[in-house]
Structure formats: C-alpha cells, structure tokens
Amino acid sequence: MDRIGFQNFRQFTEFNAIEFKGITFLVGKNNSGKSTLIKALLLVNKYLKSDSTHLLEFSNNTNDEINISTYGRAKNKFNKVDYIKFKVYFDNYQIRLLITGESNATFGRIVSFQLKNYETNTIILFKPYESTLTFKKLSGDIETKLNIYKSETLKNNLIAEIKALEASLNESTLDRHSKAYLLERDKINKLKSKIESMESNLFPKINDEVYSLSYVLESSFEMKIKETCDIALDNLLNQYESEYHEIQNGKEQSDNFVNLRGIKEDVQLFKSSLNDFNHYSKAVKLHFLPAQTHKQSSLFIIQDKTNLLAQVIHDYAQLRILKGEVASMFVEHWIKEFDIGDQIKIDQVGGEAYEVTIINNKKSISLADKGTGTHQLIRIILKAASIIHVKQNRKFITPFEVFTVSNLDWLLIEEPELNLHPDFQSKLADLFFELFEKYRISTIIETHSEYIIRRTQVIVAEKELEIAPNTNPFIIHYFTTERDKTSQPFEIKFNPDGTFQNNFGTGFFDEASQRTLDLIRLKRLNKQ
Hints:
Strand content: 15-25%
Number of strands: 19
Number of helices: 13
Helix content: 40-55%
Radius of gyration: 26 Å
Shape: globular
Distance between the termini: 60 Å
Largest sheet: 9 strands, antiparallel
C-alpha cells in the first residue's frame, strides 16, 4: 500500500492521498484526523479481503477495532452529499470505492468499484447494484500521468503547509513588524510562489478514451470481483469471435465491433490487472495495536477480548515458536534492550489462560508484577515477533509478492509511547527501523512523542538515509486543525543532516521551549 485518500469520511470532506513509506509517523493535535486515517485503512482493507462485492460492513465482529458502527457515523456530517469515496494506491494501481447507505445501517452499499492501471492505461469499473462491468482503455503516456500525479501531490502538501504556517502565525504573539514575524511571512510567500510556478508548468491531463465497453451481468451477487470480471471478459471475447466470423461472411460490422476488437487485443492487460489486484488483496496484511491502558492481572484470560495484551500473548503462544528461531531471538534481543529481562516464559493454565514470567539474572518475576510501561512494550514486541514468524514461515509466495514495490505487511500502532520513560520512547524508533530494514515489515505510528521523532532525526543522520543511493524509510505527516476544523496534513521533510526542512505546527517541538520562556518571564516578574 502506497497511498490513501478519501472524501466525506468522518471529519474530512476532502482528504488528498498521502504517501506511506516503510516507517510512517502520524503526528499532530488531538482530533486532527490521525485516527480517521487509521480507520480508513482498516475499513478498506477489511472490504478488500471480504467475499462481498456489494457491501462494506461498518459493524461486525471483525471490525470492532474500527468502532464506527453505522454509515451515518462514517459519513461526514457537514456535507450534504450522500456518499463516501476511498482511493487506495499500490504499485501502478489505483482502487476507487464509491459508497452510499442509510444513516442507521451497519453497512454501506458499494455504488462502484474501480481498478485503474496507470502502466497499461486500463480501467475496470464495476457497479454491483446495476450488475454492469465497464472496460476502458485510455490514451496518454504513463510517465506524463505519473508526473501529473506527483506534482499535484506536492502541491497539496505545500497548500497544507501554508495553512498550518498561517494558522501558527495568527496564533502567535509576534509583533507584525518584528524580524521573526517577517521571516515567517516570507517563508509563506516563497511557498505560494512555488505553487504558482508548479501550476504554470503542469502537463496537460491526458485521459481521452480509446474505447469503453460495458457488459450487463445476469447476476453479480455472491461473486468475487475477479470471478465476475473473468466471466464478462470471456463472454465479450465470444461476442467478438462470433461477429468476426459474421463479418468474414460478408455481414457489415456493428458500431460496437471496434470496442470488442479493443477487448480482444487488450484482454491480457485486463486479466493481469485483476490477477495483481487479487494477489494484493490476499497478501496485504494490516495488524492493528490500538492504544489501551493494560490491566494488572496475574493471569491473561484467553476469552477476555477486551484485554489486548492477553490476545497478543495468545496469538504468540499459538505459533509454538521455539528458542533459537528468528522470532524468539527478536523477542530476547528487545526485552534486553528495554531492560525488561533476559527471557520471557509463557505457560498455559488450564487451557483458559496464560501465566507470563520474565526471567532476569536467573530470577523469575511475573509479568503481572511489572509496570504498565513493560506491558506496553511486551505487547509491541510479541506482536512484531508474531508477524516476523508468520512472514518467514510462509510456504507459498506468488510472483506478485516477489516483484511488487508495495509493502504488504503493516503494523499499525496507536500511541506506542504510553507509560514509557523518554529513553524507551526514543528507542522505539530503533525497533521500528529494524522491523523495516531487517524484516521488511512496515509501520504506521500515531504518536505524540517528541522523543520518538527526535530519534528518527539521529538515525537519518547517522545512517545517511537522505544521501543517495540510500533511501530514507521515515516519513512524517503532521495533522493540524484550523479554527477547530481539521485540514489536510503536510509532510515534514528531512535534510541529510537529520534536521527538518519545514516546521511542525505549534504545540509539539516548541512546547518545551514555550514553557521555558514562561518560567523566565515569571522569574523576571518575581524579581521586579
């Protein structure tokens, strides 16, 4: 998965697609939309893995973690239009979903599903409730189209950054004639000039149709997208062959024959897109660790679905990972790094619960007697180890998984810094880097931790990740609010020395400095 965007979902009327890398951080104020992005990812992923082509479920046993429950809660309340749109990108593909529904319904109806292949300029458009499939071929050069997309993405990031800088400046107490204020205003003007320059140089959009052919299905219910498309394509090929033979016998060709011939010539392009989509939807895995205060308990009950640590322990124990295996060594390494202990021992009790023991210097202590910070770390470490073990022990891997540039294994974590000392918060950045660098597991982290972000700067500088041919796997999206309304997040970019090219919004890195200034002012007042 490379990017996601959406319209009319939760608090956003428009959320332009943002990029994900190997280690993606979502940073910003509360209620700025970070959790909404996580929910969008989980919701779309659940749909792609489901057998349903007609419905997107908001409330069922597998979607408790999304916590939306109805279409009315999912749709933006301030926009009158009655639909939600999602756009997801992987490799050279774009998946577009259009959804509508009734306010109290626990599902949304899929109005249309579109799969676009930028490399082959082909589109497959499926409208389940109309039982129609449309196959399109577009004109235009793929490189031109990708350049347009990249330029528009950069433009959206610049606009979001300008809005955040202007909001920050309006909230500041800087004198409008001071040097600091004028420098910030100059920075904003330069960004605006950059946008104007980009707009004047944008390539013209090329989306002319070479052909478009629709097919009406007898029934598309209870059928998966690939199966439905395969049937339609085979029938269209039969139509082509039938009319081709009639033309050979002297019959005049129909107006539709040119479109049928296009399908005949490009059928493998459409089927290749469908195969890639099918493999992608099966292979991509999102593992979610929501923020949770952990219960202090001597036993971790298997049936306690509200105790997420108990569920992570259960999943890890069921893998039967042996000492000396890669996942086991990963666990031992990181519990030592975080000063938890030397080993972890998990024993099942009566088939209904687990007792977890930490062994340190040959002494044993129950995990229940450890602090909530240790519980948080154990949850992250065991979850990551489980993903590593499953990933490394898969017996069948498709060619798509070998050659795709998209990341397929994702660990999504809300506030991993909960209850952790600043030193350990900082060390989490190293754990996330190892997961990506060594095990090719990507992470999306929603965080308020300045220490994690500061550590990423050091890693970038030490490993020269911004210097070619190295590639920096870190990306930071800053979510902001504008007059109590959420707005488009903007990317915080790294310099080769680890510093940032642009500023965070107010209330993050500047918060400690502001409190120091408050103390200095108070000290001066007291002296007076």
